């Protein structure tokens, strides 16, 4: 009996026990939940760093106050999610939808603090690429088309971006198409998190900031455009979330899944999504190279998102064997 207790583990048993311990806290989570945890730590750190910096200067911007409030809000939601998973596992809709809320909260906070992570801007390179491709700056060239009604249309399309992002997934959920819902939602969330990482890696000021001295016309005086301007002005004046364009990435990704799974919805979304893509240049939020990079990211998410989710979920049955 003592011999059995002191006998060293065989290699296979050691591997099994190690995997059991490792999988127990990672692969019991869904991939979108795990990514939220990975990004949540840096979000807290850099939000706190930015808050303390501005506080030491004697003035904390309103957007950072909101960021701190959002951190506590996400903590509460995560706690609720854990309770739901443990006590009400049948409440599947909440567990399915809350990771998207985490994703948006993390995006907003990291968006506000990019310069505290990486101060090395690349907008000069993006400006040069657009000039090489088109022989001009497209956002400046587009001034010739500025008209109040066109500004209203594009401002509306731009503002409803966060409706498009979950729309296809929600439609599939309501139709009871569980697998298609998972494929769409996970791919959208993976696309967002990939975009966050690239924002931090390649910080770039948008054209409305980097090229503001070149513009001779302004967007104002109309209802929706004024509301959109107020919404953008809530963001920090040193915003660096231009490359790649997540508006382009997620919009294209949503259209691709709509075409694949819910063709009538694709045709309904198409004119609004087209307006949204055009609005990013017309309203000076993105360089054209941002859109090209965003389209590439959306296509990659469309192709690899479901495959990554399938691989992740394939690890969970191994845990079932070990409890």
Please describe the topology of this protein:
Layout: H1 2-6, H2 11-26, H3 31-56, H4 62-87, H5 92-112, H6 114-117, H7 123-134, H8 138-141, H9 148-159, H10 161-174, H11 178-201, H12 207-210, H13 223-233, H14 246-261, H15 263-282, H16 288-314, H17 316-322
Kindly list the characteristics that best describe this protein.
about 325 residues; mainly alpha; 17 helices; about 75% helix; disordered N terminus
* Measured distance between first and last alpha carbons: 26 Å
Can you count the helices?
17
Overall average residue pLDDT:
80
Runs in which pLDDT lies below 50 for 5 or more consecutive residues are 1-19, 319-323
* Major sheet description: none
Taken as a percent bin, the fraction of beta residues is: under 5%
**CA-atom Rg in angstroms:** 23 Å
Anisotropy-based shape? globular
Number of strands: 0
Query: What are the secondary-structure elements, in order, as H or E?
Result: HHHHHHHHHHHHHHHHH
> How many separate domains make up the residues?
1
Overall helicity = over 70%
Secondary-structure-derived class:
mainly alpha
Describe the protein in words.
- It is a single chain.
- The protein has one domain.
- It is 77% helix and 0% strand.
- The chain is built from 17 helices and no strands.
- The protein is an all-alpha fold.
What is this entry, summarized?
With 323 residues, the chain is mainly α. 77% of the residues lie in helices and 0% in strands. It has one domain (11-322).
